[in-house]
Design brief:
- The protein is an alpha/beta fold and about 180 residues long.
- The chain has one domain.
- Helices cover about 40% and strands about 20% of the residues.
- The strands form two sheets. Strands 1-4-5-6-7-8 form a six-stranded mixed sheet. A two-stranded antiparallel sheet has the order 2-3.
- It is globular and about 45 Å long.
Length: about 180
């Protein structure tokens, strides 16, 4: 039986078959390279694999982020883009944001506690073609577009982070990316 009060226990049964690592979920199949090398976190799940298993018999699979990282009261929805932000297909990311969030909201519809923290993270390669000032402007513009979509979705996420891998290395010291 699911624990109705801890987010990680509540979702564990649903995702346990899709256990993975940040390294594996950051694999870029086209270039056969990883954006993140971390294999230390225990509660990482391959959300793409989950969606394929659950919705594989329909014509068009819902777009979905790569991974979910669970803590007792925290959920990080993670999309890895192994390319510079200036080259990322923005409408595709927005689709993943919308459709993945809908799947997650449906899963959490019977989860009662509301003192949890939900975060959507986009991790991309450092953009070497532009200066830091322009990168920050780009990131804040994208953040604004995600904020607008989040508002449409009932402000599901407490935080949205669109940053390059260096940001995550500096601000999440426990990760070995």
């Amino acid at each position: 039986m699911r624990n109705r009060y801890r987010l990680d226990f509540f979702l564990m049964r649903e995702f346990d078959s899709y256990r993975s690592t940040l390294k594996e979920t950051s694999l870029d199949l086209t270039n056969n390279e990883y954006l993140c090398e971390d294999e230390s976190l225990n509660n990482v799940f391959d959300f793409d694999a989950y969606v394929k298993a659950k919705f594989g018999n329909i014509d068009a699979l819902p777009a979905s982020p790569d991974a979910i990282c669970l803590g007792p009261k925290d959920l990080y929805f993670v999309e890895f883009k192994n390319q510079e932000w200036s080259r990322v297909n923005k409408p595709q990311i927005e689709r993943k944001f919308r459709e993945g969030t809908q799947i997650l909201k449906n899963l959490l519809s019977t989860f009662t506690p509301r003192d949890n923290r939900y975060c959507f993270c986009v991790v991309h390669k450092r953009d070497t073609s532009t200066r830091a000032y322009h990168r920050n402007i780009q990131a804040s513009q994208e953040r604004y577009s995600f904020d607008a979509i989040n508002e449409e979705l009932g402000n599901f996420y407490d935080e949205i982070i669109v940053q390059d891998i260096d940001f995550y290395k500096q601000n999440f010291a426990e990760l070995a990316c």
